[in-house]
Amino acid sequence: MTVLNNKQLLAHEVVEDSNPSDNIDFQTIISRRLNRRSILKGGTGLTAAAFFGALPLVGCSDDDDDNTVNNSAGNNAAIPAQGDLKRPEALKFTAVAHSTAETMSVAEGYKAEMILPLGTPLISGIDEWKDNREQSAESFEWRMGDNHDGMWFFGKKGGAYDAKASDNGLLVMNHEYVNSNELSPFGYYVTQDDTAAPIFQNRRLASDVRREVNCHGVAVVEMSRRADGTGYEMVADSKYNRRITSSTTAQLAGPVAGSDLVKTKFDPTGLQTRGINNNCGAGLSPWGTYLTTEENFLGVFARGQDASQLSAGYNYGRERYGAMENFPGWEYLWHTPEAKDAKIPDEFSRWDMTAVGASAADDYRNGFNTFGYITEIDPFDSKSVPQKRTALGRFAHENCAYAPVEQGKPVVFYMGDDARGEYIYKFVSKATWSNSDIGGGLKAGDKYMNEGTLYVATFNENGRGEWKALIHGQNGLDASNRDLPFNGQDEVLIFARAAADALGATKMDRPEWVSVSPMTGEVYVTLTNNKYRGERDDQPVSASNPRSYEAGGKARGNDNGHIIRWAEAGGDHAATTFEWDIYLFAAPSGLSAENLSQLNASNDLSSPDGLYFDPRGVLWIQTDDGAYTDTTNCMLLAALPGKVSDGALTTTSAGQQTPVGMLASDDNIKRFFVGPEGCEVTGITMTPDFKTLFINIQHPGNTWGAIAGGKTPRSATVMITREDGDVILAESFI
Ligand code: FEO
Ligand code: CA
Ligand code: CA
Ligand code: CA
């Protein structure tokens, strides 16, 4: 046995980028820079050298980004506030300074406490966390998982969802991936056999894989307000406390259920699969269930040499999602433990998509196709089966945000596909909204999420955009399609990326979180960064992705990211056209050519990722950065955006003209929190009384997280309250 690496591993910072399509919209073609040759090909996965290198791998992360800058939007007092509390007219707290400390810092007058770190038992009878391998893999079915990410606080009253209840609630959160250093502090163990088939040359231990599988997924934790009236504590042994992991049975719901392309040895009928994986950003449904996402699921699958012949179209579909032949996955290698160590025969082989049997019912060739969905969970029913809502498409889902619902109108969800050059989507339900469905659980989900139309966005150069429907039999999405013949709506959804290619969707700079303003109804999406922008011929700068920092005569791409926003035509979220601008360019304040929103030291940022409009209309922006981290750790900012077209045209250093929103000021965007060194700040939710803000800290460096016991840094939740117990960002606060 060899200890290959004693550093942090299995982070998910590898950004999968498998969009090889030559899909470039017309405006992009005319603005294309013909003098620039593509250097990088759109490969996926890791080279062997990178695989075993000392650098941590990160999933959806920061990896291409560099500087930071945050831009702001306008503080527009003319826009009416909604909800019980008004949006502040200006941000009056004192900005948190840049920090590279090992500890976190929060705005003066606030308190930030770490809770629920990795390994925290959710039930009694399980040992507290220890810095060793003694805790059984199985015990993690009842512990907090790793890399806490998107989350939601569900107010609870009388045992049911109550959107206004704050004394008691269910905190539901994603556990995105695993840092094996925390779970296996003595190393990442593999047995090497160079004579084995390529995907089996490095084998892992069954117990390590089992522990990692259990550290992924979702946690449901009942929280009660503390006796002193501020903040919350976990209700140990609550009947609601639950873990859903990468081995929990889940239902395939919607048009993909029963498709030939999701039939497996586990369920030859194609109605069920096991597990949810790489759950990144989160969403809430209008009826009060939790929507979790599946992002970098590619990394846990392997693909060897198929024994059975698969169709050319099916192969294209696999590769469009990054699964090339002889691909061992990322470092997870969950398919590799010895079969004799499996507790059930296919415990590990299920992660291998190689077609080895006579038919799909004999192997897991289709297992890969059962991941990559928005998954609905009812936290109020601990026996309920997670539902993969396939009508919303299969891709590297970042999060899922619904538009304000209106009686008698369809329900609309917005979503991003986080990979370089991937797309932005929306789903419009067939059923129309009825307020009587609030609290309706998964039955309401069946009604609104199993039937409807999935659209993909095109952003034109003139500030307008269009939604194109992914419907089988329309717009060339049929068996005549060149790269991937579509034989039904199930195939359009399973290979949504390829369908979107065919419709000429706009390749974006890694769409991360989406959030809809409760004040304007406008939709905001973080585009975190993209090192290929302007650097690869198929991703030239364009108005909607207009920056490519140039150094030494070479395009370096969009290092710092931006936030795009749009207004649907007529304010109708089911509309098929919209108007957009760029709300904010992130950039270091010292980088004047890139700092197009005029950020300063109080509000500059890089690589925006998490994004959340609280119900008052305050926009919270989180960063997952690797470009500005010499100056500052990742952070959380508060902002008061205006609306589309409240700014002016600007020209980027790449020579691209584009509309940018109102410039930043200390009134309209400000740094509220800085995380510990090495971390990503992600996941955000607020209690209905606006008095507690929960955020998550992923993969902190050094010692942060150890204060809860042990020595290893651990991912955890941070609970932020005001020292005087009042409402966060209340107007009176100075
Ligand atoms: Fe898991 Fe794209 O963030
Ligand atoms: Ca990210
Ligand atoms: Ca992350
Ligand atoms: Ca993210």
TrEMBL record:
SUPFAM superfamilies on file: Calcium-dependent phosphotriesterase
Superkingdom of this protein's organism: Bacteria
Spans annotated as Disordered: 531-556
Record protein name field: Phosphatase
Source organism (scientific name): Psychrobacter glaciei
